[in-house]
Amino acid sequence: MVSDTPTLVSSPSRWTGFLDRNLRNPLRLVGIILMAYLAYIAIANIASGQFTLERFVRLFIFGLAQGSIYALIALGYTLVYGILSMINFAHSEVFMAGAYIGFFAINAMDQSGFLDDQTFLALLITVLVGMSASVTIAVLLERIAYRPLRGAPRLVPLITAIGASITLQQLFLRLFGSGTRVYPDVNFFVLPGIFNNLECIEVNGAQVCRGLDLIGGRYEVEFLGLSLQIRPIYFLVFFLAVIFMAALWFFVKRTKTGKAMRAVAEDKKTAALMGIDVDRVIVTTFVLGAVLAGAGGVFFALYNTQVQPFMGFFPGIKAFTAAVVGGIGNIPGAMFGGMFLGMVESIAPSLLGIPNQLRDVIVFGMLILVLIFRPTGIFGEVLSEKKA
Amino acid sequence: MLNTDALRFGLYMAIATIIVALTAVFGKFEERFVIAGVLNLSQVLLAIIVGGTGLYVAARSQQSGMRTAVVTGMLASLIVGVGLALVVLIEASIDLTFIFPDLKTDPIGPALTFGLELLPGLLALLALSLVLGVISSALLMLPVRVRQVGLMALALTVVVGVLQSQINKVITLPDALALAAVGGGGYIAGGRMIGRPLSIRLLAGTVIGAAAGLVLAVAAGSGLEAGSVLRGAGDMPRLLTTDAAASMVVFGVFGLVGVMISAAPRGIFYAGVGLLVAVIILGGLNAQGGMTLTMAVITFFILSFTFWFMPGFNRQAESRFEDLDPQAQQSVRRIAVAIAFVLMLAAPSFLGQYITSVIDLVGLYVIMGIGLTVTIGYAGLLDLGYVAFFAIGAYTVGILTTPSLITCGGINPSEIARADIATTCTGVLTFWQAWPLCILVAGCAGLLLGIPILRLRGDYLAIVTLGFGEIIRLIALSNTFSPLLGGAQGIANIPFPVLDLTALNPAWRIGLGGATSIYYLILAGVMVAAFVVVRLGGTRLGRAWRAMRADEDVARAMGIDVVRIKLLAYATGASFAGLGGAIFGSWLQGIFPNSFTLLVSINVVSMIIIGGMGSIPGVILGAFVLIGLPEVLRELQDYRLLAFGVLLVVTMLSKPQGLLPPPLRRLSEQALLYRAQKGA
Amino acid sequence: MLRKFVVLVLAVMLLTVAAASAQDAPVVTIAPDGSVVIGLAAALSGEGLAPLGEDIQRGAELALDARPTVTVEGKEFAVKLDPQDDLCSAEGGQTVANRFVADAGVVGVVGPMCSSACRAAAPIFDAAGYSSISPSCTAPGLTLSGYTSFNRAVVSDGFQGVVAAEFIYNTLGVRKIATIHDGSPYGAGLVEVVTKRFTELGGEVVAADAVNVGETNFRSTLENIAAEEPELIYFGGFAAEGARLAQQRADAGMKDVIFMGADGIKGGEYPTLAGAAAVGTYASSAIPEESDTVAEVLAKYLEKYGLEKPTGPFWPNAYDATNMILDAIEAVGTLDADGNLVIDRAALQEYIRSIKDFKGLSGVLNCDGTGECSAAKIGIIQYGEGGAEIEVAVGVPNPDGSITIEVPES
User: Fold this and answer.
1) Inter-residue contact C334 to C72 (CB < 8 Å)
2) pTM over 0.80
3) With an 8 Å Cβ cutoff, is A55 touching chain C?
């Protein structure tokens, strides 16, 4: 582990040190050659006009939203890993539960007309319902499937997590049926004063413009000479995710419970001796992860509309990858990893001219490349230095 | 006075039961009879939940007196009953079918109110839960042994009833009774001749059995017509109506089993008795064409008898076993292994095609699990992308044995299905020539994967290997490589292995195309894999792996070439998956990329952990649990994966070390550590 | 001692081989009070495909509701369905096939549901002399492999794809298309056929890509396709992915590009899932001959299962497949002296292979002897508001193998 920590390099020049480290190691050499080759393809594609700036911006905006969702889920993996150093495989079902139960809330409000009258309130309720569903599931998971196994060999909780994941998927399938549920169309108009030429309808012969449709809208925008298709919800998801993550960061760094969490992550026994209720801290961690996953689930469902019991699987795997790319157990790492993965997934296939079918090959290839250079992820493991 | 903790448990159970009820399970299971026309699965489930809660709660509050225990248990059962009644009431007053669509076709109400009107039905439900609570709590008053034997026998009877449709085809009642009689005869003879040398006893048992077989086979014909007492509604007896030579062999083996269990150590004793009991129950089921009330009662008593008396017989047998001289003890063990082996060889012929095909699949997973035992169990390297090597093996055999880009120049594999092309150009190799290459290719892929992840530890390995598995699947699936790999349509028409012994006898050309014949190939694969891996564990390399797992840094300090042995661990594990893949491809006679999902890797890893990491019998048991169990649970129809997930969690919670952990693992590890520390 | 056991082992092996080679006579015998069992193999619990499997099961159940018994020589026998989950995978198909084969009481099989499962099950059914009629295995290669047991009551993609290509080129007048499939043998096979025919006609496939089942983000796929400026996107796959593609194509600036799929997105969940984006998109499927029976059965379907619409497109095919098997049983079944129903499996196979003019829900079925029983016509519909289906063209095969696209007057 010693030679991999770049800050410890004490060679006279950083640059020669860099060369030395990377060229001597055949693996890194291969990695560098591969990256150079990919960069060459990318530049060639840009130069030949196959990959235009317009396309880049479009994909970037979408990657932003997708990445935010990944980041929100990845935080759940990272938090739990940081404290218990176990992979919570059932976290993808926590995400699914948020989206699925959120559906019943928003659907009921849609039926009663409340969604149209008080859109903001209705959306808020939906998010809260989704979150509480996720939190319930996560707390039960911790209590039933993980807590009794805290002293067991490392891989054992992994298996209960897999079992719990199958159970939850199948329980939802049997309870709510196999059909796909569809979120209703939501129109959430804001700022009619500023966007006074959007979403105009005729009311009693007079034109009324309702402003920007934040959720369901889809606009052609000319921006710096680029014609872009923009859905405001992508930005909305991004900003909400950033707010949630900032709140989490504040919670972990500034509150007493956050401090306790870090202490437990560092050393459970010592933390217990210092008067910290370890069980309570661990439950809090699960709750935090579930809050983010539940919110992520509802946001995801708002722009993807389809919810079904197996919907957690792909986002779960991707988010887990994101957590590892960023350095598992590391909160900024998970945020960055999620965004990074969303971007790679969205932009890389076009940029490199690879069929989209092989998109995940790029994603996982990127993961391997990152880990060749940084075996503990880009940001390294911070929350738990001792885990290896 | 009442134990509130216990009552809270009743409340939790009530909530859980409400959720279970909302999955419409009670309605769906009404059609599934455990005992034909008398008891359905829905009622059994209700009894298990309500009665089980009562028993559990009563047992927990036992220390505060028997009366309190019974009252608490009864109350807990009643709480669950009230919960169910509440669901029925809600269902009757509100339309829940939008949220719970399955309730439309299988409503809870009719299933739980026993066909009565709503109110009387609910009262009946409450009364029933009260009665069940009292009965189940009152079970505590029975002596411990009676209670345990009774409950176990009851549980097994229900299991037999649930599985009846699958297991009643195996053997008929006349067969079963004859076999059990011969086994019992062998047991008695073995006990009588206790003074004689072991070889004489064994021979006597075999001869008695064989003679009985001969007599029965000759005498059989007339008494076994349709509708006669013994045959009932069952099929024609199989053993009794085959030729005399065959029945002599089979009955001889059962006579031998009887003698064996009269003087055997615990494991062999229970295995032998289990075999005989299973034979009787199976035969009985077939005679009835399904579980009837009579059959259920008989099964219950046979099982109770077995559980009640067997420990006594076992002690007797064990003391006889201990009287034997060591050499004779050794030969008892060997013969037991030989009988087990014989039964394994004969298994496909009496288990039928379906059960054999399930065992085939289990066997394939065992081969993979044994391979992964090297990577995870010995070397401690987590691998969640094991399916990649399985896929590589399967695709190698597919490419090499079918007409492909190599032999037929650019024909898209999906078109090879066309019969006209298939006859004009064939594969490069036969299965027998191809499988070593599959192992080789998969092993090399293991090396290749090993290189970039050498420096990673723990959970980073998990995600990278997982990614590798997905990469291989996506490449197999992709349009880009479809000229070689067939894309989404996979490779069709892979020829099955043909055992060509025409050099010895012109008639000996055996195609291993069906479940019952490929079984032998898989069995051979499992045995070779188990042999290699067990042997490997004892070598210098095996010890080095274990040392690395215990502590990598210490192992390196001890002069172990960690890089080399890590790569070897990946390559060894991968080659077994390659072998499994090769057999898989030619068994299915076609491969599809969608067979190689993450679920396969997860299954193999779970198998190893459930079985107990590092133990070969554990892998086999784990494979039966993870691959066999979902097939057994098919009787639960839509609910099988749900039950499977729950069982997975429960198993791990109750047995965190696995079902069959390797003996003395901890000790050897400590010894290794100690040695390592002393060396350092 | 050892030698003795070697001999014993060999003896048992010989016995096993003998028992294995002595196959049961390929005849089903059913006691007077017994019931005829029809197997059904479909994905009933797996990921994403369970709605299609349940739809197939419902189709078969409805057929049995309408016809709960078979009558042979004036004697009635009850019919029972044995539904088994094949998980839509090759291993699943194989296991279920072995299960049915091991149960000598199973007379015929409806299914399997997916082409990979059909491919894995066919050799097993062949060996046991069983007959299966799949309501949904559409891969063209299945009837070219010489299986004796395999039949399908669904139109082969070999035909559906050709009709689609002709329709796109001739009727819509489109010259540049993009294709997307979902990585299933069904989708990939269909796209292959369409591509082949469309290029033969002189059109150009400007982009070909694929998506993964279960994924949600198709933006980059669509952006890449948009760059090639196709006039139409042809999709081989099922409702969930089809709906997402239809919706997200607008985000990629292809709102006006035509979206077309096949029977995977016909009816069922697709219009609900895609919502407004479904309007104007095309789908194809075999069309029924007389539509009032279909409406009648559909009404029963919706009432019995409490749904607003069927969860998949294949229930009419399952309905037909079940009825074909029941017809065949009535035709070849005989009574023996004890009043048992005796069905000769070989005769059953032969009868099913030669069924002619079977008027089913999915069309008039004619089995051509290779297992192909598909309906004679392919209808192409366009979705209107609220999931309305407007018939825009019908593909009719001509005796010389060519195809005529008939466009109804409207």
Assistant:
1) yes
2) yes
3) yes
